[in-house]
Amino acid sequence: MTISRSRKHIEKYYDQSDIGKFPKRLAPINESPKLTELDISYNDLFQFIDLLNLEVYTPLKYVYPSKLEKYIEQATARSSSWENREKGRNQLMITNLLKRAESSIHAFKLTSERILENISLKLKVIEDYEQSNNGTVENGADDFEYDVFTVGQDLKIELSDMDYQSWKKQLVADKYVFTKLLDVVYRITPEHDTKIATLQDLIRKKIDYPINQGNKKVLIFTAFSDTADYLYNHLSDQLIQKAHLHTALISGTRTESTIPGRKNDFNELLTLFSPQSKNRDALGLDGEIDVVIATDVISEGQNLQDADYLINYDIHWNPVRIIQRFGRIDRIGSTNDTIQMVNFWPDISLDDYINLKARVENRAKLVAISSIGEDTIDNTDPDMEYRKKQLETLQNEVVDLEDMSSGVNIMDLGLNEFQLDLQKLREKYGDYEAKPYGIHAITKADNNHPAGVIFVLRNRNNAMNIDKQNRLHPFYLVYIAENGEIVSNHFNPKKILDDMRYLSRDKSAPIENLTQAFNIETLEGKDMSKYSHLLNQAIDSMVSVKKEKDIDSLFTSGGTTALENDINGLNDFELINFLVVRGE
């Protein structure tokens, strides 16, 4: 079993004189360069984006109701899946444009060009149809890079089955916006790109004034391979000519370096970048790379602690990814005394930056409102304020995963200690797999653990693993108080496991008075109506959270969950066991 230990855990519990120390983290450097020295700002781009409808991704919306059965199986529970997927794709592309605008003008330009080309192709099909009365449009998948959005097989729609004139008006409107937008973007050539110029200055200063003697290594992260290509194409030759340093590019679509004749192998290039930590000499390799430009394909699982300087060329909307990136160089046994993280931010206020996500989310809510007939939008989102606090923290310090709380991404929280507990319990009590479902225990409530129930459930399908956030999937834990209030929801499994461990500690036999009271209350288990009601409330809370997370998933990497199987309630789960938390 491999056990992952955090920096804090190692510093607290291990003798570092035997295993080495962590390097000192310097306070982050924050760069907010203008988009360009020309009279063009990020807000100018965002204003263009706000004008877009992107109905190119929603042709099914314009199919006549009498013709819908040709394209969807209305008799099935998934009859609305294509409509939902179209809405999701529309919102995802808006998000994708915002992210790419923040990443690089080059990535934003390429995406805008691709969408404009798609719109132009659809308009050409309509033009041909108007002349020949024969034509179909295809509504298939687009490549959103790491925002992969799978919609299944392409859907071909006959224009004769559509109100194509209304659709055409929306396409023409977007074509006009994209044409005007690209007219502005084309002015920002690499020579006028202030952001890449700022990056060049940072690298030059790092080389001339290293923070650790003789160390010129720089690791640059970006979320998009288009941006990585752009940086490599405009930096690598300069670094060879002016500093005699080799550069490597590692992304999901391209891997290469400036070392002549070198095989562009992913692991080999990283070994040349971090020769000491990866034992280059023992592997019989030679040569050295000082600058690596990479996407998040190497944000986890790589020991690159020869480097001491990491640059986030764009800020991932999930702050955990920033911490994971820095973890490549923030490792025990580093020969560097200090390490540095540099973050690039758009030239807008943090409030405006956070509101970008909120603006897109409100567009998604408007779509939902139009489908259910409501006429109000709840603009209060506690997650926005929470995310703002996270990003403010990242601007001022380098934090550990455990300091980011469980609201970020449960996949990033270590659960290994509970696996060790389980192993010890098996050694003491034997095989647990033969135990029947539905067993329970009773423990005592206290000031920090209100009376209620902790339910352990097993999902019968894959619908609930929202954004792959539940590391325990297909198992789900919910702590619900007697009054129906959710103490901890299913996105906090580590918190609930900690509570269960605390409440069960040093208890190897039933607590007699609590068990007796429970048996009286339930007529020796014959009347479990109270707990059945709490179970239903617990599952209802997961259904509610899923609906909220479906929209939120449009703004995270790895695709959206809004199009996956819905869950309906109790029938989707099995009750594995439950812990009753009782007051006196």
Descriptive notes:
Strands 1, 2, 5, 6, 7, 8, 9 and 10 form an eight-stranded mixed sheet that branches. The protein has a five-stranded mixed sheet with strand order 11-15-12-13-14, sandwiched between helices. Helices cover 41% and strands 12% of the residues. With 584 residues, it is α/β, with parallel strands linked by helices.
SSE map:
Layout: H1 7-13, H2 16-19, E1 24-25, E2 29-31, H3 42-51, H4 81-103, H5 105-132, E3 136-139, E4 155-158, H6 164-185, H7 194-208, E5 218-221, H8 225-243, E6 247-250, E7 255-257, H9 266-273, E8 291-294, E9 309-312, H10 319-326, E10 338-344, H11 350-372, H12 382-396, H13 416-429, E11 439-444, E12 452-459, E13 475-481, E14 486-488, H14 493-504, H15 512-521, H16 529-552, E15 573-582
Parallel strand pairs: 1-10, 2-10, 5-8, 5-9, 6-8, 9-10, 11-15
Antiparallel strand pairs: 3-4, 6-7, 12-13, 12-15, 13-14
Helix pairs in contact: 3-4, 3-6, 4-5, 4-11, 5-6, 5-8, 11-12
